[in-house]
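Apologies for my clumsy wording, but could you write out the amino acids of a protein and the tokens describing how it folds?
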Amino acid sequence: QITSPTFLLIQKQRDVLNKMNPYGEVGIFFSYANSMYTGRISNYGTQLLLQDAGRSYEVILGKPNLIGILDDLTLQQLTRFKAIVLPQTQYLTNNQVTQLLSYVNGGGVLIVVAPTNNFAGAFDENKTSRTNATWESLVNVANSTTSLYGSGTVVTIVPKIVDANSNTFNHGPK
């Protein structure tokens, strides 16, 4: 009884499902290492925003090269997305940074939401500070910005916090 209205709607409107892309148009990058070290699942809010906007999405699992789980991310996995969101992620493997840069260089759009008090991907999966100058130049910014890289675009969002006295504080790096 609960599912019958949905079932009937699908039966009557088959063309609606036929027009849908089976994959999300937006990828949300989920860093397993980030979740392990911060105890947070940083992609949940992004999922809700995309659902409210009526956008299809798929979660891209970034494996950590830790505890026997090897990072096997490839450029081919990323290129099917119109855009990829990297929400408040401090820990990325070197391969993940390389693949994300290749995705953008090839024309992709990377939307980075800066994590608290640092830049996205500031550390690798072993908590070692990142030393990739290209990556840092694109995501380690004081204010929200859009940068071109190769044929693609990096949009970095640095959340601002406004207190009761209208003082504004950066939530992200620098």
User: Anything to note?
Assistant: The radius of gyration is 18 Å. The CA atoms of residues 116 and 172 lie 5 Å apart. The longest helix spans residues 94-105.
